[in-house]
Amino acid sequence: MTRSAGQSLSITDPLDPARAAALHATLGLPGTPPKSGEAMPPFWQQIYFWDAQPPARLGPDGHVQLGSGLIPDLGLPIRMWAGGRLQFDAPVLLGHPAERRSIVEATTRKQGRSGPLGFVTLRHEIWQESRLCLTEHQDIVYRMPRSDTGPASGPPSPVDETIFRPVSFDSTLLFRYSALTFNGHRIHYDLDYARRVEGYAGLVVHGPLMAQLLILLAEEEMGGLTRFSFRATAPLILGEDAELCRKDGRLWVRGPDGRLCMEAEAG
């Protein structure tokens, strides 16, 4: 069953450069952070356009209650960001107001091997000075809770990379990235919840954080990007080292046991 949900939301943000400077520091990037009037680096829209809600409107996972905001309630409480697609049409300038127009494009409900699954596709458009600058599609998967806390598993990673970089994560990085993106999902900071409710072996590294590192690598190696897409294939757990890999326009995150955690394409 697939349908266009039609729910929409518009948020205007001044794009404060101080927040960009905070992400620049959080990621440990070299040089000076971008200033007012300069282009926002790709994927940094994640730290803007907050839809802040009071505690009474939050669900048990820390996100806005399903059915009370943009995303409909499919009766499946566990949320996972499955992937996304981005089209870059024009620079988004920091320090200049921009509008994000969001719409639920479609919802799909299917039966998976582990039970029912719900799929929601959001489309975000970022407009600045009457110009469409960026279009982002966000794919979210919903499932039922599980109590097993076995090791993370996933498909095997490619091993034909021409560039790879080791990367590690700590709880401070996860906390700061959650704060900057205003992401209250408890799997990133509440160990008991992550294990007992959502069935992970530990705290989960943000999918968008892995995507951010891949897109920075792609831009560094390939120059300005016009498109980027990514798909999460397995969780990366706090304490696990990983590798950022690239071959031509393909990029991926490889976990410590050789599993593929995320794959991406850039152009």
Detailed description of the structure:
Helix content is 16%, strand content 34%. Strands 1, 2, 3, 4, 5, 6, 7, 8, 9, 10 and 11 form an eleven-stranded antiparallel β-sheet that branches. A hairpin with a 2-residue loop joins strand 9 and strand 10. Helix 1 runs antiparallel to helix 2. The chain starts with a strand and ends with a strand. The model has no long low-confidence stretch (mean pLDDT 93).
* Number of helices in the DSSP assignment: 4
What value does the Rg take, in angstroms?
18 Å
Gross morphology? globular
Query: Uncertain spans, ≥5 residues at pLDDT below 50?
Result: none
Helix content: 10-25%
N- to C-terminal separation? Answer: 33 Å
Number-wise, the strands total 11
How much strand content do the residues show?
25-35%
Please summarize the sheet with the most strands.
Answer: 11 strands, antiparallel
Overall pLDDT score: 93
- Helices and strands, in order, run as EEHEEEEEHHHEEEE
Which structural class do the helices and strands define? alpha+beta
